[in-house]
Amino acid sequence: MKNIDNLSKIASQVRRDIIRMVNAAASGHPGGSLSSTDVLTTLFFKVMNHNPSGWKADGVGYDMFFLSAGHLSPVYYSVLARSGYFGKEELASFRKFGSRLQGHPSVEWSVPGVHISTGSLGQGLSVATGAALAKKLNNDKNFVYALIGDGESQEGQIWEAAMFAAHKKVDNLIVITDYNGQQIDGPVGEVMNLGDLRAKWEAFGWECIEADGHNFEQISEAFAKAKSSAGNGKPKMLLMKTVMGKGVDFMSGTHHWHGKAPNADQTVKALAQLEETLGDF
Amino acid sequence: MKEYINTGNKDTRSGFGAGLLEAGKMDPNVVALCADLVGSLKMDAFAAEFPDRFYECGIAEANMIGLSAGLALSGKIPFAGSFASFATGRVYDQIRQAVAYSHTNVKICASHAGITLGEDGATHQIMEDIGLMRMLPGLTVINPCDYNQTKAATIAIAKHNGPVYLRFGRPSVPNFTPENQSFEIGKAIKLADGNDVTIIATGHLVWEAIQAGIELEKAGISADILNIHTIKPLDKNAVLESASRTKAVVIAEEHLIAGGLGEAVSDFLSGNYPVFTEHVAVDDRFGQSGEPSELMKAYNLGSADIIKAVQRVLSKK
After folding, report:
1. Which domains are assigned to chain A?
2. Which of A112, A132, B208, B269 could disulfide-link to A144, CB 3.0 to 4.6 Å?
3. What is the pTM of this model?
4. What is the enclosing helix (H) or strand (E) of A148?
5. Which residues of A touch B68 (CB under 8 A)?
């Protein structure tokens, strides 16, 4: 229970980072960053076998994480900084000229923790699958994690990768869908209905695990279950039911904050709802 | 003019297949991927020899490029093969983001480039691929001229750390460069020494340039002939050295004028040593079905067309 309390405290700080980064940059994507915060906090602070201070781009001997939905860079940069990949003060440079923390994660700018450039949607799952194949070739028993969006799953390449990973039995691959039901233009069900997402992934041959993406106990159990079935020949899909904008009342459950920065007043209102637990950057 | 002997027509894609097998034997990190064109790309031998290092991706080129990028991260050297049309235009964004912008050591290997793909017609005859790949920051672009050179280039790019676009073709063409030659990326090869005109050629047009050189010599015109197999980075010194002596340049390639080697050379010369240039390339139109030889003729890509271009450029000199 203590650990779960701790994750929740870290997540609160990560959400503060997201709001403050996006406000300072006057641009960026808070909605999906806030919805995926609890899952990524659990992954980076509890689940992953990683080495933040000694991180290497080749990922050999450690778990690897790929953010396919590159616009969720605020939450990504925050969990990277807060888990020790780089100093938290660098978060202030998000989206600023000359910063390593580009609008979307970039290898060209050598950000510790970032293996591949993403932003154009639908590509990260293929890259993660390739990295998982390499781990098998190298007899490296660590896992490859990736996070995709539900809206992103409208991209055809996601399903190309889904087919391949199942066909080649890439069972060291654990993928999270941040299933918040929103995308820029509106609710996913209205913009382009994905139908029964679980049935789709299962039909493609994946092991599917559903969880409440804001319940740390359920999130942890989902990861544990996925890891425990590593050798079953199936890639794993964790459908994490989340709420876009989670943690800030006026941002919750709407697509309006997908890609919009809060102004000064809105930032004050948002931060009042999020406890500062680890010290702001 | 130095004599070049055709040791027998062979397709450049078979040179790729042979080179890939050898690269695979040399380095256990070499892996290969293909999108349902293993036979067409001549990747069968590698797939048979190294089944654990070969990935059939099915008809899903976008995923293949992403997989390649992921494999490259931990030191694998992926060779991803498809037809040039599907290995570039179809997956431009994947190459841009996961390969070029991510600096992954991926080798994009494209067969059936240009119009000599033949009977399949314009859907498959990409003549924009050099342009597309040349625009991407940091991407090396290579278009070897025959079987032996394609084999050597394939082995060379396995040893080169960085993303590469390797372009080759379908038809059997003269094989005239040395067997087991060394291949230096970015270094032009001088095929003939001359003073009247420079002929720069790449890919299948290199043999045509040699044939043109022989005819021109009979007419009393001495041509300096360069085989530029590496389109990017361009061997600027070789271009400058030749153009500054001949003061007239013809560039020949199986590609559109737009975006091709000719534009790269003309752009470089215009800022460094302005001379008249003429293009032997396709001008703003799509290809069509037909036999490779008749298409080369119909689209003005043969030695006779190079000779005409030489006459045009000399008339302006």
Report:
1. 4-271 (3.40.50.970)
2. A132
3. 0.97
4. strand A144-149
5. 130
- Give the class (CATH, top level) of B189-316: alpha beta
pLDDT digits (tens, 9 = 90+) for B147-191: 999 999 999 999 999 999 999 999 999 999 999 999 999 999 999
B233: preceding bond cis by omega (within 30 degrees): yes
* Equal fold, B10-173 vs B189-316: yes
Beta-carbon separation of A134 and B74 below 8 A:
yes
Cα–Cα distances (Å) from A34 to A187, A214, A222, in that order, read 16, 10, 20
The torsion angle over the Cα atoms of residues A184, A188, A191 and A192, rounded to 10 degrees, is: 130
Among B80, B82, B84, CA closest to B65: B80
In whole angstroms, give the CA distance from residue B33 to residue B22.
16
DSSP B145-200: -SHHHHHHHHHHHHHS-S-EEEE--SSEE---SPTT----TT--EEEE--SSEEEE
| CA–CA gap between residue B263 and residue B175 (Å, rounded) | 27
Chain A positions touching chain B (beta carbons under 8 Å) = 57-60, 64, 66, 106-108, 115-120, 122-135, 137-138, 140, 156-157, 160-161, 163-164, 167-168
Helix and strand numbers, DSSP H then E, in chain A: 10, 7
CATH class label, B10-173: alpha beta
Cβ separation A123–B75 shorter than 8 A? no
Q: Where are the domains of chain B?
A: 10-173, 189-316
Smallest Cβ–Cβ distance between B57 and the set A59, A106, A164 belongs to A164
Residue of A106, A107, A157 with shortest CB distance to B63 = A157
Does A115 sit within 8 Å of B76, measured CB to CB? no
Measured between alpha carbons, how far is A188 from A179 in angstroms, rounded to an integer? Answer: 10
Q: Do A127 and B98 touch (CB under 8 A)?
A: yes
Q: Which residues of A touch B66 (CB under 8 A)?
A: 123-127, 129-130, 157, 161
Mention every residue, 6+ apart, whose C-beta is less than 8 A from residue A261: A22, A23, A25, A26, A27, A28, A30
Rounded distance between C-alpha atoms, residue A261 and residue A22, angstroms: 5
Q: What is the ipTM of this complex?
A: 0.96
| Planar angle of CA B146, B147, B150, nearest 5 degrees | 80
Q: What angle do CA B76, B80, B83 make, to 5 degrees?
A: 170
The 10s digit of each residue's pLDDT in A140-185 is 999 999 999 999 999 999 999 999 999 999 999 999 999 999 999 9
For tokens 């007043």, the residue is A265
Interface contact flag, B60 A125, Cβ < 8 Å: no
Tell me the catalytic residues of B: 61
Residue in A with minimal Cα distance to B55: A168
pLDDT band at A1 (very low <50, low <70, confident <90, very high): very low
